[in-house]
Amino acid sequence: MADLSINFAGIRSPNPFWLASAPPSNSGAQVHRAFEAGWGGAVWKTIGAPVLNVSNRYGAWHYGNQKMLAINNVELISDRPLDLNLAEIRDVKRHWPDRAVIASAMVESTPEAWGDIVRRIEDTGADGIELNYGCPHGMSERGMGSAVGQVPEYCEQITRWVKSAASIPVIVKLTPNITSIVYPARAAVAAQADALSLINTINSIVGVDLDTFDITPNIGGKGGHGGYAGPAVKPIALNMLAALGVDEVVSRAGLPISGMGGMSTWKDAAEFLLLGATSLQVCTAVMHYGFRIVEDLCDGLSNWMDAHGFAAIADFRGKSLPRISDFKDFDLSFRAVARIDPAKCIRCDLCYVACNDTAHQCIDLIAADGSRVEPHTYDVRSNGKNDAIHTRPQPRVREEDCVGCRLCYNVCPVEHCIEMVELPPCQPSVTWDQLSKSQREVTESWDAMERYREEHGIHIH
Amino acid sequence: MSNTDRSAIRQPGLTELLPPLTEHEALVEANRCLYCYDAPCTHACPTHIDIPRFIKKIATGNLPGSARTILEANLLGATCARVCPVQELCEGACVLGAEHKPIMIGRLQRYAMDYAYSRNVPMFHAAAKTGMKIAVIGAGPAGLSCAGELAKLGHSATLFEKRPLGGGLSTYGIIVLREPVDIALAEVEMICRFGVELKTGVEIGRDVSFSALRSNYDAIFLSVGLGATPALGIPGEEYCIDGLEYIEQSKIDRDKLQVGRQVIVIGAGNTAIDCATIAKRMGAERVTMVYRRTEQEMTAYPHEYEFIKKEGVEFRFLTQPVKIVADAGNVAGLECVRTELGSVDLSGRPSPRLVPGSEFVIPADQIVKAIGQEKPSLAASLGIETQRGFIKVDDDYQTSMPGVYAGGDCIRSAGAASTVMAVEDGKLAAGAIHRRLTAAAVPAGVL
Ligand SMILES: Cc1cc2nc3c(=O)[nH]c(=O)nc-3n(C[C@H](O)[C@H](O)[C@H](O)COP(=O)(O)OP(=O)(O)OC[C@H]3O[C@@H](n4cnc5c(N)ncnc54)[C@H](O)[C@@H]3O)c2cc1C
Ligand SMILES: Cc1cc2nc3c(=O)[nH]c(=O)nc-3n(C[C@H](O)[C@H](O)[C@H](O)COP(=O)(O)O)c2cc1C
Ligand code: SF4
Ligand code: SF4
Ligand code: SF4
Question: Which end of chain B is more exposed for a tag (fewer CB within 10 A), N or C?
Fold first, then answer.
């Protein structure tokens, strides 16, 4: 059994899974139950300035049979009285000394307001403070949340105020609604934050009602942008996490990062860890299925670690970061082609139409006698399952024409039916960066490019 | 009139077996379809409905578009959705069939059709009138399909039907468990709405002569189906009930239907299974199917055989009826002889041989024969060439008589006759007739 425990800027928890600051961590009773279910920690639903919430505050993005691929919300921070929240945080921490209890805060942008909330949070015995610089709606209109997170100078200033008042670890939670996540992160580093967390929700409009023309969800005839989260945002979160991991300033500072955004399985979790996260936070997946999901998050992660011989999370944390690279450093001589396994293929022809209509027209339909046939060519009099099944041609990749774009691999509904097969390179290993230094004209003139290709036998289809 | 308003004709125990899919079920199932390209299910459907297209439209919430996609290829989409042997056709070819469950294509088709019929969605506009007149004889699936397609092309099609109601076997022959009568009749109404004229109670050859039709119409389509149940040729046959009549009564003349306590059904095709189903569901204590070959040779579809076994019907294979035993004018039993299978006969199946001295009597108070249908008689009387008793047609569905076309059960000399095949015949024949009538050379009124 692998050891899942973590030490996050001095905050310990038996496993890396924390409830993100959001509805699942809205009250003491909920966090109690979450801890009973096995969550390693909880970042309390943001407390601070007084607010009022509205109904219909959650919208969702569904795709096919999959419900809630993403959620969209216009919920503000906690609308429960501040004192009640603080009392419950104290109570929960007393009951659960081994779990991470972190208070998320957002108040007016003054040193007094921040100093005051920090003191009151420390009074509860909480393990840390997370600064919510991310809420993209409502609070930002009042100069808080993403209005802070989007301006590195504000981010730095407020973090300094908090750091000067706080004795427990301070985590700065970043908003993804910014051109580069690196700048607010550097600001937090400059202000000596103890840790970072990301991502908060992404600006979004989830839909329009086609009968009433209302914005979805409809809030009394109005609607607007809300924060987007859930499985659909995971790739964006991973990218931002990796961007911090490879940034010189941020990585040199060595702050632990709490990763979140779209995590719903232990596989997602392992990916966040491989890209440098130390703790992990989950919101939407819990809102979809409840606290019980933590069981497989832990179990699956632990089994995977056992299989790879990782005894502790530190053994593989950040292990994939060195593979993050820029296009200019990719090896241009790398070649792969798609290959279909006819034994697994169910002949749905989705690869064929994808390649034929939108990629490089290099999948053929092969009849039983080996000849190439066009689609839609059976006789109208032919019918019945036997005709349909036995005369159906088999898609086959014309490997000499395949550019290895990987579209067919992505659309194929059968596991391991299409493999991308690596081929020996037909030119010496070279990157764009090297090329632009050694043979600059090739990267600047189409004629030179043409000659370069001929020289190396590179065919464009 | 909505489909459910007409439930007066439905009976307890004999109502449509499968419930309609709920909206939720339909969406989940539609989203499960992979949307295959040049899909094998479409190839397998005899009318080649673009199945992924209509299913995708259910998934996107475009139900009028879905219904139109179906009807473009198959005007009898509502009947076919219910009666097609989908295991042998579309669903049997679904790429998800091998490892998972195939998509419920028939039931999704029904979902889209129910939507269209319940809202009277207008589906097609007839093209400008061409002035051409076509007589279609027989308003079963083949005739309806042909007449409807011709009307879509702007021709004037008149359907002559000898029975009081249109629909052919969909109305009179397919048991209510699969298709309620009101569905078949709504389909007839829909086809009449785009300009087809239906004359019921008119038998060609009796009420109107064939030659009169030939001189008044630019083309003729024969879609007369098959005839009554043939004779068994055994003593006591007069006590035997005709299976087709049995089914017909169960559908539209419930009061006349009498079901015995111990019922024997002679035959083992799909019609025989339907008769046994009716007997069982209408209160018979014991229903026995008697067949002179074995279950390997039965012509019923495997899924039908599975169904009837679950209904609790018993089977006597290798059993040849030789005499109906009557007692004071009432059926008392069926005398049978054991058989053995011998060499392969003309039908490609081993022929049964009687085992001498193996006579025995199965007690019964009702005996129903369901041993197929007689060949179409009209063809012979008109001097049209036939093939094994069926009307012979060329690739364009034209008979040996120029300008006279035929399709449906009356031409199906090989393979299983089914509604969807009849619909396709009608559609392809309409195309051929259209090509002939619009080719400049043919002067109107001359066949
Ligand atoms: C009991 C039974 C159950 C069946 N179940 C199924 C099933 O579940 N699924 C399936 O796909 N198929 C089934 N079939 C087969 C299917 O019903 C037929 O293949 C289909 O109806 C053939 O259509 P058709 O138009 O050729 O003939 P029919 O439906 O037989 O229609 C022919 C029409 O022509 C009329 N007619 C005949 N002669 C004349 C004349 N001289 N003048 C005017 N009108 C005339 C008849 O009255 C009839 O209405 C079943 C058949 C039977 C008998
Ligand atoms: C309904 C809802 C309310 C949220 N409220 C807060 C909040 O009060 N404070 C905060 O820092 N983040 C809040 N978040 C953001 C989450 O903490 C988290 O950053 C984001 O949802 C991404 O994680 P996920 O994809 O697992 O949901 C909220 C998210 C949702 C969906
Ligand atoms: S997408 Fe996959 S399963 Fe479908 S035809 Fe192509 S290789 Fe076969
Ligand atoms: S018409 Fe019949 S065979 Fe064709 S798709 Fe519909 S249910 Fe399947
Ligand atoms: S074969 Fe099955 S999965 Fe593919 S389009 Fe047809 S119904 Fe859908």
Answer: N
Q: How far apart are CA B141 and CA B84, in angstroms?
A: 12
CATH superfamily of B133-227+374-439: FAD/NAD(P)-binding domain (3.50.50.60)
Place of tokens 């919920």: A75
pTM: 0.92
Q: Which of A359, A348, A356, A361 is nearest to A406 (CA)?
A: A359
What is the structure's pLDDT at B421? 98
How high does pLDDT run on average in chain A? 96
The structure tokens 């008149």 sit at B158
- Region class of B179: left (phi > 0), else alpha (psi between -120 and 50), else beta: beta
Q: Please state at what angle helix B51-59 crosses helix B105-119, rounded to 10 degrees.
A: 60
- The topology (CATH level 3) of B237-369 is FAD/NAD(P)-binding domain (3.50.50)
CATH no. for A334-426 = 3.30.70.20
The CA distance from B421 to the nearest CA of chain A, in Å, is 9
- Tally the C-alpha atoms within 13 A of residue B404's C-alpha that lie toward its C-beta: 23
d(CA A144, CA A107): 7
Phi, psi of A60 (to 5 degrees): -150, 155
- Say if the Cβ atoms of A375 and B37 lie within 8 Å: yes
φ, ψ (nearest 5 deg) of residue A120: -65, -35
The two three-digit tokens of residue A325, written as one number: 């690279």
Name the DSSP letter for residue A401.
Answer: T
Question: What is this model's ipTM?
Answer: 0.91
Q: Burial letters for A53-91: b for 16+ Cβ neighbours within 10 Å, e otherwise?
A: eeeebbbbbeeeeeebbbbbbbbbbbeeebeebbebbbb
Look at B93 and A413 and tell me if their CB atoms are within 8 Å: no
Note if A135 is an active site residue.
yes
Cα A21 to ligand 2 centre (Å): 6
User: Between B43, B98, B421, which is nearest A382 by CB?
Assistant: B43
Which positions in chain A touch B414 (Cβ < 8 Å)? Answer: none
B3-118 placed in CATH 3.40.50.300: no
All structural domains of chain B with their residue ranges: 3-118, 133-227+374-439, 237-369
Cα separation, A84 vs A86, whole angstroms: 5
Rounded to the nearest 10 degrees, the angle between the axes of helix A294-308 and helix A28-37 is 40
Cα distance between residue B2 and residue B206, in whole Å: 36
Domain extents in chain A: 6-323, 334-426, 427-461
Span A195-250, pLDDT tens digits: 999 999 999 999 999 999 999 999 999 999 999 999 999 999 999 999 999 999 99
Q: How far from each other are the two terminal CA atoms of chain A, in whole angstroms?
A: 51
User: Cβ contacts of residue A369 below 8 Å, gap of 6+?
Assistant: none
Q: How far is B189 from chain A (nearest CA, A)?
A: 28
Work out the mean pLDDT of chain B and round it to a whole number. Answer: 92
User: Is there a shared CATH topology between the B133-227+374-439 domain and the B237-369 domain?
Assistant: yes
Please name which of B30, B18, B37 lies closest in space to residue B63, comparing C-alpha atoms.
Answer: B30
Determine which helix (DSSP H) or strand (DSSP E) holds A75, and give its type and residue range. none
DSSP string, B399-441: -SSTTEEE-SGGG--SS---HHHHHHHHHHHHHHHHHHHHSTT
E-assigned strand segments in B178-283: 197-200, 219-222, 241-242, 262-266
How far is the CA of B377 from the CAs of B138, B227, B298, B382, B389, in angstroms? 13, 7, 26, 9, 8
Of how many residues is chain B composed?
A: 447
Q: Say yes or no: CB of residue A137 within 6 Å of ligand 2.
A: no
Tell me if B40 and A388 make a contact (CB, 8 A cut-off). Answer: yes
Strand partners, B220: B135, B404
Q: What is the tens place of the pLDDT at every residue in B239-252? A: 999 999 999 999 99
Higher pLDDT, B377 or A367: A367
Q: What is the DSSP letter of B36?
A: -
